[in-house]
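Entry:
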Amino acid sequence: MSSNIIVPLSNYTEPVLQSAAAPANDPALLDAYSQAVVSAAEKISASVVKIEVTQSGKTRSGESRDRQGGGSGFVFTPDGLVLTNSHVVHDANRIQVSLADGHRLSAHTIGDDPATDLAVIRVGMPDNDAPSLVAAPLGDSQSLRVGQIAIAIGNPYGFQYTVTAGVVSALGRSLRSYSGRLIEDVIQTDASLNPGNSGGPLVTTDGRVIGVNTATIMGAQGLCFAIGINTAKFVAGRLLRDGRIKRSYIGVEAQTAPLHRRVVRFYDLASESGVFVMSVDDGSPAKKAGLREGDVIIALDGKPVAGVDDLHRLLTDARVGVSSSLTVLRHTEKLELKIVPEESRKG
């Protein structure tokens, strides 16, 4: 069994690297870095908004009480569409948006998707004294490289238009949303984020948005995450078209479970785990297909399913109403069931 060894920082001495000569242009390099951050902040700040929401809730005694919350967002079309996090505006009764020029406007939700923690809201434009909205330029998160500068702008703890800078620490991370699904291709950065930054933009030095800031790990330093802007573009387009993201479902309660090695070898399976069916909903596609409690799903249309997250990835809107082949293990028998997924009404 291997074990991780944690070296206390207080006892660790960084090796001294000797240099023949210190670079003469250190101040110039610092100025160049500063200028890059300043330039990006100036380009994007007019598009960043502060979002304040009111949500209905109940106290422990059952009394109704409104809760106040908020976060950040950014304008991405000149006609007042704002991209933010789903958890910022989900179930909000009232949304107020503050612009960089001091205007404070009401807004309403166009659509939100808890599974990717993204939402689109529209700012209500007044008939008179209408502010000019500046749309943020969107970049390409697929072209990012680890180590490049990343700048976050938002409203942490209500302090408006706070700028922090760092680097892209890692790419292709997965992050579990509050709906339980995995968000894929998440950007990890060490640009400092705090409560209130949620929904704000992560930008490059040329002022283009590469991500939507969404989460930090409590108790950790320098572990912050943003949803890639390419994912956000896709989700925003679907929310504008349909008001929601369509996904399919089969109607089971399940969990990831290991498979017996003998079964894996006998059937030459691609994975040593599958989806163990704990219960089947009445009237669901799974029930109609003959799926039973205790079955283990190992493939959908020939694509291996090693766990619940794999099944979620495969159950896209393209499978709604389409007959698919579900490969399951029932005890030690391998079966092929025909199933027709239906549209899910949940995230």
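The helical segments are 26-44, 86-89, 229-242, 261-267, 285-289, 308-314.
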